[in-house]
C-alpha cells in the first residue's frame, strides 16, 4: 500500500504531559523503514498543528480544551479524508486518544464505517458524566453523538453506528460509562472475555462486528497491553494483553486489511517509557497490522 503517515502531537485531551512526543518517538523507533521492509511505500506528511496547553485556559470546563481539540480534529479529519480519496492509507500517530475523533471521523466521510477499539478504557464518557473532564475519555461517545455531542458536526460521525463498534481489552470503566455501554449497542470484549476465549477468537469477533460496515477504522491505544509490556503510556492499567497476544490481534487485522480504511496508534508517552520500548513496540504492532509476518 501507499501509506501516508500523519502525526498529531497532542496531549490536550489527557491528564498528564508527554503523549505529545509520541509521534516523534514512534518515528525515531524506525516506523518508515519497518513499513518499507514490509513492502509498503511510505509518505511522511509531518504533524498537524496543535496549540500548546501552556497558553490556554482549561479552568471551569467539563471538557478541557474542547475548542482547541475541535480545531485539531477538524484539520486531521480533512487530511484523513484527502488521503483516502487519493487511494492511499492514512496511518495516524498520537498523541492522546481524543485524536480518534478526527481520524475515525475523517474515515467515516467515505461511508458506513465500523470501529475496532483496542484499549483498556471505554472512552464512553461525555462532558456530563466525566469525572476528569479529559476528552481522551470521551472519544467513542463523541463519535456516536452521545450527550452534548449529539449536535456536534465536528465530533458526531453519523456513518459510525453503535452496532458496528467493538471494543477489545476493556478493564477500566467509570460507573456512568459502564451503565451507558450496557445500554448501548456497542460490543464490549473485556479482559475476562479474552481470558475465557483467547484474544485471537475475540479479535475475529470484533472484526466481524466492525466488518458489517462498508469499511473499518482500527484504533490502537498502547495501554491495551499490560504495563510490563508497554510502560510508556498515558494511563496504564494492570492486567492487559501480552506481547505475543497483541501481535496475534494485529495479524488478525492484517487478514482483513482490504476492509480497513485507516488506522491510528495513540497514547505513547516517552516521559514514562524505558529506552523507547513502547514506541518500538508500537512500530512492531503497526507492521504486523499492515501485513508483516515472521515467515
List keywords for this structure.
Arginase; 295 residues; alpha/beta; Arginase, Chain A; 8-stranded parallel β-sheet; single chain
Summarize the structure.
The protein has helices spanning 22-28, 31-37, 66-85, 100-107, 139-143, 175-182, 191-197, 199-210, 243-255, 277-289; strands at residues 2-8, 41-47, 89-94, 113-118, 165-170, 187-190, 215-221, 260-266. With 295 residues, it is α/β, with parallel strands linked by helices.
Q: Can you tell me the overall shape? A: globular
Order of helices and strands: EHHEHEHEHEHEHHEHEH
Helix content: 25-40%
Classify the beta-strand content into a percent band. 15-25%
How many helix segments? Answer: 10
Regions with little confidence, pLDDT below 50 for 5+ residues: none
Tell me the count of domains. Answer: 1
CATH superfamily: Ureohydrolase domain
Give the strand line-up of the largest sheet: 2-1-3-8-7-4-5-6
Give the CATH architecture. Answer: 3-Layer(aba) Sandwich
Main beta-sheet annotation: 8 strands, parallel
- CATH class descriptor name: Alpha Beta
What structural class do helix, strand and pairing data support?
A: alpha/beta
Radius of gyration, taken over Cα atoms and rounded to an integer in Å: 17 Å
Rounded mean pLDDT is 96
The CATH topology comes to: Arginase, Chain A
Number of strands: 8
First-to-last CA distance: 20 Å
